[in-house]
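Worked Example 4.2. Consider the chain below.
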Amino acid sequence: MIKIAIDGPSGAGKSFLAKAIAQRLGIIHVDTGALYRAVGLYMYRSGISKTESNSIISALKDIKISLTFENGSQYVVLNGENVNNYIREPQISMYASTVSALPEVRAFLLETQRSIANNNSVVMDGRDIGTVILPDADVKIYLTANDESRARRRFEELSEKGVKTTLEDVLSDMSARDKKDSTRAAAPAIPALDAVFLDNSCLDRDETLLAALKIIEDKTK
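Applying the procedure from the previous section yields the following structure tokens:
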């Protein structure tokens, strides 16, 4: 079995890269950020403010989250509902960033993530995979890009899904989330000491995949 951790800021293309690696290597892709988005979605739908930490923690007992995998795709099931089509909206992204800063939420989701990796070969992407979730990963990649490239990619992704926003708003939200995630007390979004940096500001998706596969090959020789 092999464990591959891909970390990095939003908009760097972590999920796309992880999916492509999983498909190429024939292993499972786990998008851990989707789990936090599902928690955020529950709080948003329940009318619980991002600032109500105690209410968020109390509501965890009412949440059941699982992952299913079909034809290489991951689906997030929240209390019996497939919520893949709802967790990528901008307001849910900010909720996800807020709830992920709470140690209680991270502990709530930790075993779900580790149990999948302990029973399958996986490529897992998020913001603290190599540092917290899979510190024993065979390969750790920190995928990054400049702010403008990341904002443009996220804007195009949202536009394709019919989400109405502007490039300026996406850049602003992204910068705010990056700052919050990298400075949080619980599992800050920082590179693992043994991670290999991959900057894809000037790379397209195919070039990014080839660069990542070379890193994996070098690390697993």
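The chain has one domain: 3-219. The CA atoms of residues 5 and 107 lie 19 Å apart. Compare this with Example 4.1 before moving on.
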